Amino acid sequence: QVQLVESGGGLVQAGGSLRLSCAASGGTFSRYTMGWFRQAPGKEREFVAAIRWSGASTYYADSVKGRFTISRDNAKNTVYLQMNSLKPEDTAIYYCGAGAWGKIDYWGQGTQVTVSS
User: pLDDT per residue over 89-101, tens digit each?
Assistant: First the structure.
């Protein structure tokens, strides 16, 4: 059983930056593809970014491409999401997920990101 704990959310003005972290425990972190997802009020959860186990391959939603960067440190069992040039439409609860590509087996509890205009 893998436990995921997100941190780093908060309130930021449009154009600002935040760095989210997701710390994993209870499993072999380096085996998992890790992803970030988000859910805005009244909307379904959507994919944001993912990174393969080695960190060599990353994938992004079109809406965040060029602004967000996903990375991981397997020695620290942590995945990061650097978010730059934030927009009000990025406001959501951000969730970390772990699993195989295309299938999330474990979820964190989420961290709130609010971008003011």
Answer: 999 999 999 998 8
